[in-house]
Amino acid sequence: MLNDDTIQYAIENTQVIVAPQRRIATFGDTVFRFFLVTELMDTVGQVRVRDGRLHAERPQIITPGQIHRMLLEGFGERAEAFADWLRENAPQLAALKYGFQFRKTDVSDNLLHGTVEEVLGRLREDVERSEDPLSAVIHGVDEGWEICLLKFAADMIQESSGGNFGDFKKRGLL
């Protein structure tokens, strides 16, 4: 189990070296390929590369009516009153819900000899040469590497949300 310091360290030390050229699709699922490079803390000159896929489900519109139903689960009368107020006073309010699935079965784990910089450089060249618009190279930390991947997912949501909202508006869905 990771402690708060390890989680914070992983978040602060996650760096996207090559970002995907595309963002999360508005009207379909998106599958990002990632190469997560981490330095082994107890072995000099070895680097771990995790190669896998991160599945982003199609964003969903959450309307005030849905927020109303979500707020009522497990909450009392005050939540119901707030949900009613939202429905009456903010009918245009909408949010996007993003879902990610991370499947460990999609991840391969390879130990390479060399420095982190050398491995990152080779991967950068490989990804750029492949011209795969959904590939990313991420530099992270070995302990808490899944936190690094979640940080990447959160960043992709943030970068995609404006375009996704725009797409929904163009189609008259918001």
Task: Describe the protein.
By secondary structure, the chain is of the alpha+beta class. It has one domain (4-63, 98-170). It is 41% helix and 30% strand. The chain has helices spanning 4-12, 64-72, 77-89, 116-130, 145-170, and strands at residues 15-18, 30-39, 46-62, 95-102, 108-113, 135-141. Strands 1, 2, 3, 4, 5 and 6 form a 6-stranded mixed sheet that branches. A hairpin with a 6-residue loop joins strand 2 and strand 3 (46-62). The N and C termini lie far apart (41 Å).
Please state roughly what percent of the residues sit in beta strands, choosing from under 5%, 5-15%, 15-25%, 25-35%, 35-45% or over 45%.
Answer: 25-35%
Largest sheet: 6 strands, mixed
Would you identify the regions where 5 or more consecutive residues have pLDDT less than 50? none
Total tally of structural domains: 1
What is the overall shape?
A: elongated
Q: Determine Rg (CA atoms, Å).
A: 20 Å
Q: What's the SSE pattern?
A: HEEEHHEEHEH
**Rounded mean pLDDT score:** 85
Residues in helices, as a percent range: 40-55%
Number of helices: 5
Oligomerization category of the chains in this entry: single chain
State the separation between the terminal residues, measured CA to CA: 41 Å
Structural class: alpha+beta
